[in-house]
Sequence to fold (383 residues):
Amino acid sequence: MRYALFSTMVMMLSLLAFSGCGKDEKAAAAGGQGTAGAQQAAGQQPGGGAAGRRQPTVVVRPVSTRDVVYTIESVGTLEAEEEVRIPARVSGPVTKVSFQEGDPVTPQTVLAEIDPARYALEYARAKAGSELSTAVLHDAQQAYDQRSSLRKQDPGWVSDEELRRYETALERGKADLSRATTDLNLAQKNLDDAKVRPPFAGVINAKLVSTGEYVRPEGVIGTIANVRTLKLRFTVPEVDAGHIEVGQAVKFSVRAHPDREFMASIFFVSNMADPSTRKVEVKARCDNPEGLLKPGFFTAVQLQAGLHHAAVMAPEEAIIPTEVGFVTYVVEQGIARQRKVEIGLRDQGEVEILKGLQPGESLVVRGGHVISNGMPVQTTDKL
Fold:
């Protein structure tokens, strides 16, 4: 009995153990199917790990070369080439004023008249004196020639003393004519100066005299500026001064004519930098035949100071600043490779690459911030 009861209990326990193992295997199988389904839903291969991760997509383009211009930009001011005072050359009351501020004038323009009647009379008197001296000299010359001819025929007809007297009269007549001629020239100059004219073509800046006012020599009646030629004054950083030479062309624009570009030619580069700003002064000269430019205009200056042929260029967004310097990425056989680069000039949204890239390489221009060296990537050429 005891043996039979023991055998029965052993059989029941064996059945229970077998039943439990079967449930564990089904649960494990169900769990395995769930994991595989989750991996497929996530876009990974079952049991994938790192190899099953989704690869990032980056935008690439071939590294290209082109000529790049080194441009220096600055701001400047236009100035009159010449701005001078217009002086009176004679004294007297101003009888007429014929100019106003802003008038364009030439060297033939009469700006004012200073007592012209008086200087006309002085000229007439000097002219009469000159004519009289001419007549006296003519008589003296004839008298001397006659006495000299007679003495050659017979020395007894004209004594030495008499001949010297006629010779002295001749020399006196020559001196009187010379003095009269000088007086006439001076009177002519005063008559010309009684009509005040500008020294060159330009525009009147200031009127400093009125009709009836008494003026003296060197008294200023106005100022004039030469605006047909203007000076462009600007400064550049000391590091750029070595790229600038006399004779170089300068392009500039002004706010008054934003749709126009003007040209100037450099004629002066300072040998010293300003101690406070560390900038070097540059002056250029420009023609102003249309009168569109005015002294005092603010200018935006561009100066082409150098040209690099076949420079390797990369978009600015492809360059990533890091603790070790500037880096970028290229793609080689589907793998991102980090490159440390040296940069040069910037031009039109691109950066010159002095070292680190070769023409034709597949450069990552967008997406470089989310990848790392050695990472598999997918590429596209569409931005």
